[in-house]
Amino acid sequence: MSLLTALARVLAAETGRAQPIRTVRHVHLSGRPLVFIPLQLAGEACAPLAVLVGDDPGRPAMLTVHEPRDRTQRFDFAAALAEVILGYINSYSTVSTAPDQPYPDAPQLLVPNPQGAAFTRLLGRSTRFRRTDGEFAVKESVPLLGRWLSFYAERMEVPAAALLVPMTTVLADHWATGQSAAEDANLAALLGWIVPPPGMTGAAAARAAEDPVRFPPAGPATDPSFDNEVLEPRIRAVRAARVTGDGGALHRAQTAMEAALRTQLEPTWELMWRAIGLLRTIDEGAHVAERWQSDCWAFTSHVAHLRDGGFPQPRRDGAVAAAARLARLERDQQRLNVQRAYDDPLVMAEYRLTGEAFAGTVTEAQSDRLDTTGKRAKLRPWIVVETAEQVSAAPGTVLTCPARPGQAAEIIEVAPAGDLTHVTLQLSGGMGRALVPLPGSVPAAGETISYTTLRDDFQSAPRFPDREQTPWTHGGPPPEYVPPVSEDEAEDIA
Is residue 476 part of a domain? Predict the structure, then answer.
């Protein structure tokens, strides 16, 4: 937690309302997201109980597994869920586009919390290797659903990705509440701090949100009291009616179970759409569209992979693939950090407090200065920035200005001036090719400006051996993929 976020939490506790800690929204929000709220049976790794899913706040689809421990019912549920999710995905993948261009938009899944995203990952793992023929066959849509859910779960590991988004994570990234980070995982309590009901403080609204009757858990785990007092008797009634073969009793028992589960899902459904509306009131950051373009490319590539008959995602990455993926994730995280700081003054302020950035006023500017030490003259203007902030960078360090990201600024001198500091910078790039800089390309005297050590070119992409050249120290070349021939060889969901 940064110093500014800690201060915002203190202010939230004092004022009784969450404090914004971002000036722009740092995540893309689709115009038609698919809200996915799962529930699972307690004590089971991935035994789906019910879901509420849809892209229309007034028309959610509810799917229920009346006996979650029954394999056939679980995969019938997966087939029904596939109709909804794959139908939503296909509405994006059937749009015509040029061969060398991504789809103009991509399907976005919103879940209430990180646990909902973890359930999505497990459901994908438990279905993507299932056979569609022979013993234990499932419908063809089931393994396809698993491959898409696995794609979303893997894409979520990319720091800049927004295809699968946990709502509590996004809200907590944009507002600081007066409660702990663990308590922020409660969607109802978090929204209570951000937009408390009239006449209530955020703390009072958060306490009211702890009532599991009014605000059931946002899943996938259910409240233990609900499990013991409501759910278990209804599951027993379904089993008893099935054993006796009484169709009327079975229908009544199933209806009662669905009604009980709906009471657990509908409050979260309403909270999710409230949160979506709240986030839409914040303008997107300048780099959000660029990151969403990367998501669209990833979606386009996966569509092509499936259409070309590509294999399902492996159970685990090989050594080369894992190392390459880790390197990409590190670069993506660094790039995200830089972009967020450039887009948002409040994020940049956190780096200013640590000395990794500073802001000040240009007091001198030699815009026509030339460097004549080489074979030919080069345009190298000098500017002097006066700042009251800490400057931890030493001479020779290359800085970047968020307002002029294509221009490098090398520190020539850092000189104390009473309570202030004068930083002399030499500029290069972003001024045109002539020996006279383009208008506005060099900061003018009197201009307020900021510089930072944050750069997204922190290291070049490493080179890795081919998959077939995996060294023996890392297990040697991985074996070729062989589809499982029976359920026993299918992937374990644990």
Answer: no
Amino acid identity, position 102: P
Pairing of strands 448-452, 357-366: antiparallel
Q: How long, in residues, is the chain?
A: 494
Please give the single-letter amino acid code of residue 127: T
CATH number of the domain enclosing 427: 2.40.30
Q: Are residues 363 and 292 in the same domain?
A: no
First and final CA of the chain: distance in angstroms?
32
Could you report the per-residue pLDDT of 108-145, keeping only the tens digit for each?
999 999 999 999 999 999 999 998 888 888 999 999 99
Q: In which domain, by residue range, is 72 found?
A: 3-313
Using CA atoms, how far apart are residues 205 and 188, in angstroms rounded to an integer?
9
Q: Where are the beta strands (DSSP E) in 253-347?
A: none
Residues 122 and 45: beta-carbon distance below 8 Å: yes
Distance of CA 315 to the CA centre of its chain: 23
Q: 178, exposed or middle or buried, with CB in 10 Å at 0-12, 13-18, 19+?
A: buried
What total number of domains does the chain contain?
2
Nearest to 347 by CA among 24, 12, 13: 24
* CB contact at 8 A, 387 and 358: yes
Q: Are 155 and 332 in contact (CB under 8 A)?
A: no
* Contacting residues for 444 by C-beta, under 8 A, at least 6 apart: 362, 365, 367
Tokens of residue 17, six digits: 């309302």
Query: Cβ(351)–Cβ(411) under 8 Å?
Result: no
Domain shared by 71 and 219, yes or no = yes
pTM given for the model: 0.89
> For residues 89 and 143, is the Cβ–Cβ distance under 8 A?
no
How do beta strands 34-40 and 109-111 pair?
Answer: parallel
- Give residue-wise pLDDT tens across range 54-72: 999 999 999 999 998 888 9
Contacts of 225 (CB under 8 A, 6+ apart): 212
Residues 6+ apart with CB under 8 A from 433: none
Structure token pair of residue 445: 């005297």
